Amino acid sequence: MLIRVWLLALLTVFGSLNVLAQGKDPRVPPGTDPGGMAVALISGGIDYTLPEIAGRLARDGEGEIVGWDFVDGDPLPFAPVGDQSSNGTVLAKALLAEAPNVRLVPVRVDSGQPRSLAKALAFVAKTPARVVLITALPVDDDLDLLRAATQEFKHLLIVVPAGSEIADLDNVLPATASDSAKPETQNSAFLLNLTSVANVLRIAAEATANAPSLDGAGLKRAVLERQRKRD
């Protein structure tokens, strides 16, 4: 009960935040919302200055990025290319190339901190995103808070690394690991089969278009049913 109260309070507090970036991260290139299905990527950060990412960022009506950095506490979830603490840029580039009708909601966290991940889900729950990709999870002993957050935001379909201890939850879908990761992804903690994930996103987009009220569990069932028919 205390965890639930904390999560609800977090949403209220976060809605009143208006923290300005301190200038240590680069500005987001100007642009407008590209449209398409909004997908949240919770990672160690991305390099949003790259043209192939900047043009696919979800944005508000003023062209500001829909995203947040829970490490620095600002709206710039930046991590430079090659930063060993983050695999977000590699994943974002590959995913956007594989799924051309997706717009990205980037969120930067410390994946070793369950509270950081729970806050990220609370933020994503207030964005247009219905599908969330989490690149890495804390150790199993620290998952209670993340479990509570996942169950609190039932409208989200949450895609997690294969073998995750929270994969049993109704709105959590374990991702298929890549059998042949490219060399630049070898240091990634989350080697996605991006074709498989892109298929998940396509199915989810179709399902929400046909039934907008579907929650995360409903989206998960739609994906698994389509996969069974294909197999």
Give descriptors for this structure.
six-stranded parallel beta sheet; Rossmann fold; alpha/beta; 35% helix; 231 residues; single chain; globular
Can you give a write-up of this model?
This protein has 231 residues and is of the alpha/beta class. A 6-stranded parallel beta sheet has the order 2-3-1-4-5-6, with helices on both faces. It is globular, with a radius of gyration of 16 Å.
Q: Secondary-structure blueprint of this entry?
A:
Layout: H1 2-15, E1 37-43, H2 51-54, E2 68-69, H3 88-98, E3 102-108, H4 114-124, E4 131-134, H5 144-152, E5 157-160, E6 172-174, H6 194-210, H7 216-230
Parallel strand pairs: 1-3, 1-4, 2-3, 4-5, 5-6
Helix pairs in contact: 1-4, 4-5, 6-7
What is the straight-line distance between the termini? 41 Å
The percent range for strand residues is 5-15%
Q: How many domains? A: 1
* Mean model confidence by pLDDT: 80
Quickly name the level 1 CATH class. Answer: Alpha Beta
Number of strands: 6
Any idea what the CATH architecture is? 3-Layer(aba) Sandwich
The major beta sheet can be summarized as:
6 strands, parallel
CATH superfamily: Peptidase S8/S53 domain
Helical/strand content category: alpha/beta
SSE string, helix = H, strand = E? HEHEHEHEHEEHH
Which strand order does the major sheet show? Answer: 2-3-1-4-5-6
Rg from C-alpha positions?
16 Å
Counting H and I runs of at least 4 residues, what is the number of helices?
Answer: 7
Which runs of at least 5 residues are low in confidence (pLDDT < 50)? 1-22, 178-192
What is the molecular shape?
globular
